[in-house]
Design goal:
By secondary structure, this protein is mainly beta. 6% of the residues lie in helices and 43% in strands. The protein is elongated.
Length: 433
Amino acid sequence: MHLPPSAFMKYYFYLIFSFFFPFLSGTTAQVNLNQGLIGCYPFTGNANDLSNRNNDGDVRGAKLTTDRFGNANAAYDFDGIDDFIEIGVQDLKINEFSYSMWIYPRSLPSYDQAFFMFSIGSASGDQGMLIGNEYTGVLTGFSNGSYLGYDYNVRCMTRAMPKLNQWYHIVLAKDVTNYYFYVDGKLICASPTKGSAAYYGTGIVKATIGARFNYGQAINAIIDDVHLYNRSLNTTEVETLFKGVPSTAPEKITLTQDKTTTCAGEQIQFTASVNSPTVSYYWKVDGIIQSIAFSNEFIYQLPDRHVDYQTTISVEASDKNSCFPSDPATAEKTITVAKCDSSSENPSLFVPTAFTPNNDGKNDTWEIFNPDAFSELKISIFNRWGEVIFQSAGYARPWNGTYKGVVVPAGAYPYKIYSQRNLIKQGVVSIIH
């Protein structure tokens, strides 16, 4: 079994679970949790929405932290004072919906108070999930308070305060006839709507994670894996989100090389191609990891041995930035390397297509390989308006993704590389946060 990238650990435990309990895994095999998905926030490095709505979150104060599987920068920490994440409401003011999230509470509200995990609404009405302490004289523990009209709402609660410093999975779902409230995959209660539609108040509707729509009643907790739907999830679907979404079958991957004959001591470039978007590539030589990068290209300096030999290049491509990731795609190629004179080979310049300047110690700079083999090398990088944001004579210090001391936004940045005033390579490098 290949070791999955850290982002996949959010879902990897399901594979272990289904191996030992196959009679349960069959109940979720046909579940399609992409159906009706209008918001997906795995919080893997940012608050971007990975659904097709692209409704990215605006982070106000919350800080990235470790998730429930020990992955760094894979969940958000809310301080319970003024932290929240706001998202657009254009797709959320609907009558049927589901909200799902994981939460790790660190403190509880005082008597007749509440901390909100999620809220969509405005003055005099919202749809919300919260932790209450006899809030409004009723709501205690994990609760939902959902308005169906001005001063008219339905309420559901666990009636017991949760234990602190542990993870919980919370879901609020609504169809035409009922609200359904779940904690850790179990239905707490169903509340009838009596024919009324979801009500979002009398003012400008806002949607917030970690606080109420008015930015108050903020929660002191870690929140992760927020999923929003334009339909009511059923019990099986809620259980699947709680237990872990089964990974799909591996995608096919094609591995090619830039040379048909290989000589000891020379460089060879490999390219991985898959039939779905992928982000992370794990490159190995004879089973030893050489590179974990966002580039589908890998350049390798073949050892200069005195005899012919074979070496195996393998790659694992993992769709890190996916709401429900698929299994990694894998491929390998064994090549025969001859002891031959490669001194007449022209030098090659390997330029990665992306990097991640997030100071995590991996792929923080744009590492160009073999620049010293070219004389009078000049590199220029531009923004979308054609402005030069980086320029270097030679490449002694790789670009760290900054312009005027500030890391540039995520996106694609054109570049041109000259040697002796001749353009030898141009393309686009992607910044990924």
